[in-house]
Structure formats: C-alpha cells, structure tokens
Amino acid sequence: MLATYHECLGQLGIDESLKADQLSFNMYVTRNLMFIVKRACNSVQSADVSEAIVDINTLGFAGTLAVKNQASLDFLKAETPINLLNKVAL
User: Fold this and answer.
1) What residues have CB less than 8 Å from 89, skipping those under 6 apart?
2) How far apart are CA 56 and CA 76, in angstroms?
3) Does residue 5 carry a pLDDT above 80?
4) Is the dihedral of CA 5, 60, 32, 11 positive or negative?
5) Domain of 13?
6) Where would you tag: which of 31, 67, 81, 90 has the fewest CB atoms within 10 A of its CB?
7) Averaged over 82-86, what is the pLDDT?
8) Where is average pLDDT lowest: 1-5, 72-76, 79-83?
9) How many domains would you assign to the chain?
10) How far apart (Å, rounded) are the C-alpha atoms in residues 56 and 64?
11) How far is Cα 34 from Cα 67, in angstroms, rounded to an integer?
C-alpha cells in the first residue's frame, strides 16, 4: 500500500520533500480504494458574506460537508457541493 501511495503522489505531482504545512491534499483509504485529491485550498468563502465559509476535508470528497452557521449553509446551497469541491480541487 505504501508503494501505491508514493506512486499516486508522484502522478499528482505532489512533492513529498515539502514540509507538511506546504502539502495540500485529501486522502481517503479503504481496504480496496485509495483516493487522493490535490487541493488548491482547504475552504471556500463567499465573496458577499464574510462569515459564509465552507471548509472542505476528505469527508467532503466522500459526500459529507459540514458548516458552522446558517450563512455557510445558505452559501453551500447556493453554490452547490460539486461547485465548491471543484473550487478546492486542482
């Protein structure tokens, strides 16, 4: 599995020699699947409402998005989950 992990990172162009705070990707692993998404950022913020922020982690790419307030929920509904995921992923 470790070899597959290194191969996937290489195919995505993720430089493993970078410091941990410089790496940005989400990873989800099961017995049969390794899913890695290279990210441009870890959240999306509304241009109109400063408190409307949706943080996106690995669970977001697995179908679970959580928000902290009503403004963020409204933003998520307006933008749609797939559009927010597209803004985060490279």
Assistant:
1) 37, 38, 39, 40, 61
2) 11
3) yes
4) negative
5) 2-88
6) 31
7) 96
8) 1-5
9) 1
10) 9
11) 26
